[in-house]
Write a structure and sequence with these properties.
The protein is an alpha/beta fold and 239 residues long. It has two domains: 77 residues; 145 residues, Toll/interleukin-1 receptor homology (TIR) domain (Rossmann fold). The chain is 47% helix and 10% strand. It contains eleven helices and five strands; from the N terminus they run H-H-H-H-H-E-H-E-H-H-E-H-E-E-H-H. Strand 3, helix 9 and strand 4 form a beta-alpha-beta unit.
């Protein structure tokens, strides 16, 4: 979610809380989300500004959860935002959507596992969706909240409607796309960019190069560096 979208959504939430609740009820409501409200009510001219003051420091995922609870109509489609899929719900790692076709899920999963040591959490739809969850909704949530997409160009990728829609979604959002060429050349709009070739390299070597590409791209470098910093071990903690 862009900063401007977050501020706009906070404003809408605050207006909704102002219309529904008094100050005590606003405190109780925000408390259900673990949000403390230490500011005295008499320091504020209205409930809207009071509510906003407690929401600005909350992460985007928390703001989205509150908006969903308030039943804002067409929240995801109108603002292009969404809570993350279950597998990314608690992660502070960089979120990489790995677009692949079903027959090559094992290869995609292998690369996903190799990326973890670089603080990159890969989403592989056929492996990372719990059987009890609606699979299409989880894919959509991953597409809305991914930091970048890696297209796994194995034979048949260009003919997959699902794979092509995932790539199109990434293009529409303007996120970084890495084309990983195994059996096929990239097609369509992403064909103009040089693909990452497999050659004879291992999954570990490919993961290292993906990490380097993301670190050196202005679209992704800041988010990935933050992820690496958030998950750095404290040297003062004994082994």
């Amino acid at each position: 979610m862009r900063a401007s979208e977050k501020i706009a959504l906070i404003d809408r939430i605050a207006r909704e809380l102002e219309s529904r609740y008094d100050y005590r009820e606003i405190d109780a409501y925000l408390g259900e989300f673990g949000i403390a409200t230490p500011h005295p009510w008499n320091n504020w001219d209205n409930k809207k500004e009071y509510s906003k003051s407690h929401l600005y420091s909350e992460p985007a995922d928390q703001i989205i959860r509150i908006a969903e609870d308030l039943d804002f109509e067409n929240l995801h489609s109108r603002l292009g935002i969404s809570p993350p899929p279950q597998c990314w719900a608690e992660t502070t790692r960089f979120r990489l959507f790995i677009s692949h076709i079903a027959k090559d899920k094992d290869k995609a999963t292998r690369l996903r596992d190799c990326l973890l040591s670089n603080e990159i959490s890969g989403f592989v739809a056929h492996e990372d969706i719990d059987a009890t969850l609606e699979w299409q909704l989880e894919i959509e949530r991953a597409l809305y909240t991914m930091d970048a997409l890696l297209a796994f160009h194995t034979k048949g990728f260009k003919d997959s409607y699902w794979a092509q829609q995932e790539v199109g979604f990434a293009l529409g959002r303007g996120v970084k796309i890495i084309s990983f060429k195994l059996d096929e050349d990239p097609t369509g709009f992403i064909s103009k960019h040089q693909a990452l070739a497999r050659r004879n390299r291992t999954a570990e070597q490919i993961a290292t190069e993906v990490d380097a590409l993301l670190l050196n791209d202005p679209l992704t470098s800041t988010k990935l560096r933050l992820a690496k910093g958030n998950n750095q071990l404290d040297d003062d903690i004994p082994f």
